[in-house]
Amino acid sequence: MSRLRVPLRPRPQAGDQHRAGPLTYVLLGLAALISLFPLYWNLVAASHSGERVVSPPAPLLPGPRLFDNLTFAWNQVDMGEALVNTTVVAGLVAVSTVLFATLAGFAFAKLPFRGRSAMLALVVATMTIPPQLSVIPLYRIITDLGWVDQLQSVVLPSLVAAFGVFFMRQYLIEALPVELVEAARVDGAHSLRIIWHVVFPVARPAMAVLGMLVFVQAWNDFFWPFIALTPDGSPTLQVALAGLGAGNHTVDQSIVLTGALISTLPLLLVFAVLGKHIVGGITTGAVKS
Known about the structure:
By secondary structure, the protein is mainly alpha-helical.
């Protein structure tokens, strides 16, 4: 009797592309719709009156008041100044965090020094401390310095983050070979030259991701800016939004959502411009030779 031979499937080789089936596209489409629906409804609510937004059933189609609500929200608070202030704060916080976190992450990852493990554990332990505990001493410090209602009171406490240090350290442990650093030292490169020509090029994908995350977090930060700044002084967007829609014992929800839409559009623009480069950087950093 002859044995029945089952044909073997060829093993996938490196570089082969896996084609997605119809179910994959259906699931991805549903996930995209669910993710975009809050933004769409924000746009819908910003195009109706406040009475229509809070009246059941909720509107699902855009209305005729979008430009009127945008004009009213822009003029009720100084939205232009708030946008500039938020851009300055978020940009400075993102740049400083990426710079200092990369330097500290490189030191913890590749430079041997006494007490490295204890210092890293201390940095990670600070992530478990709720930020609310530092509000009172931090407010007393900025009061003594005369920084109340000034942007440096929001920027300086956020110049570096423990998460960023840990994130860059974990990335550089795998992505930066110690032999590359030693070879640069043998060639006579000093520490700053090694950081500029060796560490920064290798860490560029992680720096882009960290910068995007920190920028979005600083842009959306409300708790500390609401304490350190005032709507009548130099507010950020989130502080300015707190004064939107206020009326006679009522709050116009459509105006509030219009302000939220204005604050969201710059983030969408930044991601639309830089999203491809960030995703490409993540992919490049994930591929090992």
